[in-house]
DNA sequence: CCAACATACGGAACGGCGTTCCGGATGCCA
DNA sequence: TGGCATCCGGAACGCCGTTCCGTATGTTGG
């Protein structure tokens, strides 16, 4: 808002080489640490893996949410972009919705602790919350609207509530073989159908 | 299993008066603290409320789960006992199941942080996990069996998975007016119905 | 090639929290 | 009332997130 860069070259003069190197190292280290210890892995562990000090983490990623978003951004984008594609390719909007939610569930259940972090009311996770919502709620809304228009599901379900519900059901996936989030999500989506 | 007390008087000689007083004070303080700050309230806060040292908490309730169970035992028992009663009084087993689950949801959504604690894989919560499961899974099983026998729901849902799913859906209740666990649970239960 | 400056780094330090431990106090019973 | 088993308080320890600043390093103009 302060100044519009009317030129074309980047207004930010380019970061120092070591800074870029460290940011990359941190992303790699965090991704690896998330896999082995979940997204709640202690900050110091990530720092050790990346070979940097803890201060460097906070300089690049002020909150844990920023780091998580940076690590998973590509996958979240892919999920968001898959929505319209599925809607175009599927036989019915409800089928597209079901497939898209499956995609979302597949993403969540393979990220230890992420589903729980998504629901945390800790202020440090607000960015995470916001990013997921901004990116996925509109897509889900579009799918829901199409299914409602096709008279396949009841019209009184909003995308926000559905996504939070699905996210919640994914908490603790893999902790007990008797708990299968996919099945419950399927049941939930089945419950959406008009009778 | 070691020795059966064949007599009638209590084998444990009775605790000291101050110990009983403190235990009562701790239960009251914890109940109040859970209401205002959730079940994750710092141990020291409970100690201050009860007017005791932190050591006294750990002596009476070795883990946080023990304290939570002690505080809510009555309500959990009441919920468990309501199962058979509902089954006897309701028109159909499915109605009884739905009502019973409503009871469970009502309990969970009014206990800030409890649903999340129930799913935590932290070792400190194992007792909590075990108590809920021991007490409620058989009841839920009975209701499910009856509904299956009446051909009202699909037969491939186990009580453990259902209860965990319902518990998960209750996480974060009240944090956002757009998120209504009751509605999602209803949808889930609706999804159980045979078509 | 070399200063001199902006930028970035490392890790010590701080506060909050759960948990343990033990010297001292206190109820209980003979 | 004396003596003992029981119980209490809170200091102390370790883990963790977060902040901060003296130091190191990349960059750039001369």
Features:
homodimer; 195 residues; mainly alpha; 9 helices; DNA-binding
Per-chain topology:
The structure is a homodimer of 195-residue chains.
Chain A lengths: L16 H21 L5 H8 L3 H7 L3 H26 L3 H17 L4 H6 L6 H24 L9 H11 L11 H12 L3
Helix pairs in contact in A: 1-2, 1-4, 4-5, 4-7, 5-7, 5-9
The structure holds a DNA duplex (30 and 30 nucleotides).
Task: Describe the structure concisely.
Chain A contains nine helices and no strands.
Please give a structural write-up.
The structure is a homodimer of 195-residue chains. Chain A has 195 residues and is an all-alpha fold. In chain A, 68% of the residues lie in helices and 0% in strands. Chain A is built from 9 helices and no strands. The longest helix of chain A has 26 residues. The first copy, chain A, starts with 16 loop residues before the first helix and ends with a helix. The N terminus of chain A is likely disordered. Chains A and B meet through helix 8 and helix 9 of A and helix 8 and helix 9 of B. The structure holds a DNA duplex (30 and 30 nucleotides).
Which class best fits the helix and strand makeup of chain A? mainly alpha
Span from first to last CA of chain A?
52 Å
Q: Tell me about the largest β-sheet of chain A.
A: none
Helix content of chain A: 55-70%
Give unreliable regions of chain A as ranges.
1-10
- Oligomeric state of the chains? homodimer
- Could you tell me the number of beta strands of chain A? 0
Q: How big is the Rg of chain A?
A: 19 Å
- The dominant shape of chain A is elongated
Average pLDDT value of chain A?
Answer: 94
Could you tell me the strand content of chain A as a percent range?
under 5%
| Helical segment count of chain A | 9
**Major interchain interface with per-chain residue totals:** A-B, 30 and 30 residues
């Amino acid at each position: 808002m302060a100044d519009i860069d009317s030129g074309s070259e980047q207004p930010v003069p380019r970061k120092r080489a070591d800074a870029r190197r460290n940011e990359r190292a941190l992303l790699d280290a965090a991704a690896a640490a998330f896999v082995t210890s979940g997204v709640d892995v202690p900050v110091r562990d990530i720092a050790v893996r990346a070979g940097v000090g803890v201060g460097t983490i906070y300089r690049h990623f002020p909150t844990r949410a920023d780091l998580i978003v940076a690590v998973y951004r590509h996958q979240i984008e892919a999920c968001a972009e898959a929505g319209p594609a599925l809607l175009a390719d599927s036989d019915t909007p409800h089928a597209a919705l079901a497939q898209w939610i499956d995609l979302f569930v597949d993403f969540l259940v393979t990220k230890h602790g992420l589903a729980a972090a998504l629901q945390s009311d800790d202020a440090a996770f607000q960015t995470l919350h916001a990013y997921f919502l901004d990116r996925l709620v509109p897509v889900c809304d579009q799918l829901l609207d199409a299914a409602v228009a096709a008279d396949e599901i009841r019209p009184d379900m909003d995308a926000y509530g559905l996504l939070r519900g699905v996210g919640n059901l994914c908490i603790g996936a893999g902790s007990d073989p008797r708990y299968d989030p996919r099945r419950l999500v399927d049941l939930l989506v089945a419950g959406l159908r008009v009778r």
